[in-house]
Amino acid sequence: MFYFIGNTLGTQITGIESAQLKRLKLFAQFGEPAKLVTADRQMNRAETAVKYGLNASSYVNLLDF
Question: Would you say the pTM of this structure is higher than 0.85?
Answer without folding.
Answer: no
